[in-house]
Design a protein that fits this description.
elongated; mainly alpha; 3 helices
Length: 56
C-alpha cells in the first residue's frame, strides 16, 4: 500500500480549493436576477416561447 506524502496532500488540497473557487465564481456569474410579476407578464406577452417552454 502506498502512502501519500504531505506534498501530495497539499497538491490535492490546492486543486480542490481551485475547483471550489471556480464553482463559486460560475455560480455567482450565472445567478439570475429576480423578475417582478409585471415584467414577467410583459416578457411573456412579447416572447412566449422564451418564457414558456415545453418541458416534456
Amino acid at each position: 500500500m502506498q502512502q501519500e506524502t504531505m506534498t501530495d496532500i497539499r497538491k490535492k488540497a490546492e486543486r480542490l480549493e481551485a475547483l471550489i473557487n471556480l464553482s463559486n465564481r460560475i455560480r455567482d456569474k450565472e445567478r439570475k436576477n429576480p423578475v417582478n410579476f409585471n415584467d414577467f407578464l410583459y416578457m411573456s406577452s412579447i416572447s412566449p416561447r422564451l418564457v414558456f417552454r415545453d418541458i416534456f
